[in-house]
Amino acid sequence: MLVSEAIKFAMGEIEPLQEIGEKWGVVHENEQVKCAPEFRKAFQLYGENGWIAASRDPEYGGQGFPNMMRIVVNDIMYGASQAFNMAPSLTHGAAHLIENFGSDDLKELYVRRMFEGQWAGTMCLTEPNAGSNLAATRTTAFPEGDHYKIKGAKIFISWGDHDLAENIIHLVLARIQGAPEGVRGISLFVVPKIRVNADGSLAEPNDVICTGVEKKLGLHASPTCALNFGDSDGCIGYLCGVENKGLAHMFQMMNQARINTGVSGMTLASTAYLNALAYTKERIQGSDIARRKEGFVPIIDHPDIRRMLLWMKAMVDGMRSMIYRTAFWSDLALELPDGEEKVRYNNLVDFLTPIVKAYASDIGFKVCEKAIQCLGGYGFCKEYPLEQYLRDVKIMSLYEGTNGIQSTDLMGRKMNMNGGAAFEAFMTEIEEFCRKNADHGILGKEIKALSAAGKRLRDVATTMGKQSKSDPLQWASNTYPALMCFGDMMAGWCLLDIAIIAQKTLDKGNESDFHKGKILQAKYFTGAVLPLTVARLETCLREGREIVEIPDEAF
Ligand SMILES: Cc1cc2nc3c(=O)[nH]c(=O)nc-3n(C[C@H](O)[C@H](O)[C@H](O)COP(=O)(O)OP(=O)(O)OC[C@H]3O[C@@H](n4cnc5c(N)ncnc54)[C@H](O)[C@@H]3O)c2cc1C
Fold first, then answer.
1. Which protein residue has the closest C-alpha to ligand 1 atom 17?
2. How far is the CA of 361 from the centre of ligand 1 (A)?
3. Residue 433, Cα to own-chain centre: how many angstroms?
């Protein structure tokens, strides 16, 4: 029910915003941002219909669905319009932070109104000198009675100002006056754009000024704002959670946002693939190379086009399955009683978060690029939506922690966390799957190939885990390709798992192209992609030190 309603809502209300937003962009006038009027209506409906809080506690207006369903809903909504869907998604994340860490007063005042879309939310981390390195955060909070005075400047804040809602609630990282340097001195604050009275009515503006919006490659309908807090000494903020634990609190939102960034990469890729598929069935060009048909043929008949379509299909299915699985495990981690199983699922989600974020964003970009290739010259033109998908999807590898940062997180902190337990949990899942299905009648050969690649991955990653301490420069030169190998392994496992399920259906005599496609894409992936993964793995341990040794002047 939720999925079919989400599809109906996305097609009716959200999908039209993709083109409207691209044409309208955003307007910055008198320190305020204006968006296309249709965006305001859609945001209000989004909140009223319960989409923002689909997976949240009914106590604050949520619908109580599992986290997994929020990811499925986001798949559908982001696929319809990435730029728009960031607004409700950030609102959800910000409200959820207050719900988890805020005082009762903060919860009472803010959470329900945000979940219902009356007010929007943002996450304000980045500063001109604090991008990847949040330890350099300079925004300061000065204690004043029951609140703080906030002073500082944030940049690149998505949906940092707009006219979609009555108020915008910023979740801001700042340093309490006199707090320790580095990440240990960062706290989290709730900073409304317009001050809020005790009864929830709006009071005077809170001295939060939007000084500009970025002109960007993509996401033209999503305002990326520079915000000044307290230029006139009139910006009030409220501590959310524990003093100096702001970054740890914010990580709750960031980890969810990282999975969601993976969802965006995957769903834009999915939409690009479907557009390319439709085009290749219609476009007539060239003759059949084997002369199976007379005259000119649709380009889907050309093996080179089919190669690209099959690669895209496999990658999209692999990414979607990887993401849904991670979301399902995050529900288990949340719902299971304390004990070994809960710890195991927590470990799996921790380990997979940087993989989902970086792999799905980079492969998402590559799928969009391949989709353009399928259209030929038309793919490059605005007449078709693919060039927009390519521009929009690029940001996914940059924000929420760049993919380079994700790779060092995976190959350093995550490899070694809990004495290697997270890595072990991940490898065990794949090894168990391979062991159980090694003699599969149709897919046995492919499963053996996955198993062999898994063994090599285990060795290489273990060696790199140690190298992170003994030879950090060489290690850091290869963390990114290693992360992509983990992503390929996970995608390959998911595709084979899907194929085994599909084969069961075929074995029951249900002939279906849908199920045949699942088997063929898994065989293609293990035959054509996995060997490249194995070769790439070897490059992660190569002895050559060119990356480290090349002098800056030689570049
Ligand atoms: C459209 C858009 C929307 C955004 N939305 C938000 C938002 O809503 N809220 C918010 O707070 N921020 C937001 N950001 C900011 C975004 O999260 C940062 O741009 C990102 O974290 C990278 O920081 P930076 O741009 O300063 O790059 P830098 O940190 O300068 O990085 C530049 C390059 O150096 C690499 N690098 C840096 N440090 C290291 C290191 N230690 N090891 C290895 N490589 C390193 C990076 O991987 C990257 O390739 C947004 C940015 C954009 C463009």
1. 399
2. 15
3. 26
